């Protein structure tokens, strides 16, 4: 009897223990599920608070600073406009969107929110690390601040950061003007890191449309043919400091439009040359008109040549426009020299027309009907007078 009571007590105790353990397990699973649902449903403001302010995140350190690999920054440029291309100073200005993308594992929020991305206000951007990107061939640049700083930042679930800003930059472009104005120029834009070497940052062009253009993009004197991509990574060795800095480069191929130069240079110069030929149809005796026309065309051609080269730098090599202007000036000046030469020949032939040959002068009768040859003694004086008249 006692043994039956003891067995019943032990059985009841084991049953109660099993039920309690199962209940605790179910409660634990339910609690974990509830906590997970609570975390994944946090408001976006709380997610940013947890990621940036209430964590050990340091915006002064690059994402992979403690790792053995560099942070890869994908770059894209959206060209809004190409405003000016200046041959005198050899530069060009652009208005662009500079877009960058990289991964910062410290900012993952997959366990906190179901949102696909978070939009970061420009006031919070200073609390997030961004690469120290600069333009290697920049002369002048400015951010657009109207009405607020034109910057955009999106943070994705896996820590990917998309950063875009609007810039106006003046970039240097070394131009080769041997074929001016029938030339094609290649103007680069170089993007690099100023302070981080390739051990920390590596730049590369984004895979899809690394260079994109505004559909309404137009240039005043050029036609944008195409672009090509290049790598401009450079190693600096100055005294004891050595470092290799990542750099990407895009070259814009610009072809000059010749319509302006046909109207302003080629057609006027051709007309001036034709005008100088008008003197060939003027009478040889119209000396003032021919001299005025010749000198006027020479001076006009010189002025036209100076105006065509006014917007060009003082380079030491010969340009195509120089050859054209020199040829036009040669034709105009040659027409003036031709008039001078013909005028000299005409003045030398006047005595022959008026007095005839020396023989006719000697055989001509005098006032008394006797020829000058028969007079004797006067032949030598007559020849001297004839030579003097011919020289005059």
TrEMBL record:
PROSITE patterns: NEUROTR_ION_CHANNEL
Record's GO cellular component terms: chloride channel complex; postsynaptic membrane
UniProt organism field: Lymnaea stagnalis
Neurotransmitter-gated ion-channel ligand-binding domain span: 47-257
Signal peptide (residue range): 1-23
Localisation: Postsynaptic cell membrane
Family: Belongs to the ligand-gated ion channel (TC 1.A.9) family. Gamma-aminobutyric acid receptor (TC 1.A.9.5) subfamily.
Molecular functions (GO terms): chloride channel activity; extracellular ligand-gated monoatomic ion channel activity; transmembrane signaling receptor activity
Transmembrane segments: 258-280, 287-303, 323-346
Pfam families associated with the record: Neur_chan_LBD (PF02931), Neur_chan_memb (PF02932)
Lineage: Eukaryota, Metazoa, Spiralia, Lophotrochozoa, Mollusca
Listed name of the protein: Gamma-aminobutyric acid receptor subunit beta
Key word Oxidoreductase present: no
Topology term for the membrane: Multi-pass membrane protein
Domain Neurotransmitter-gated ion-channel transmembrane, first and last residues per copy: 265-348
CDD domains xref list: LGIC_ECD_GlyR, LGIC_TM_anion
Keyword vocabulary terms for this entry: Cell membrane, Chloride, Chloride channel, Disulfide bond, Glycoprotein, Ion channel, Ion transport, Ligand-gated ion channel, Membrane, Postsynaptic cell membrane, Receptor, Signal, Synapse, Transmembrane, Transmembrane helix, Transport
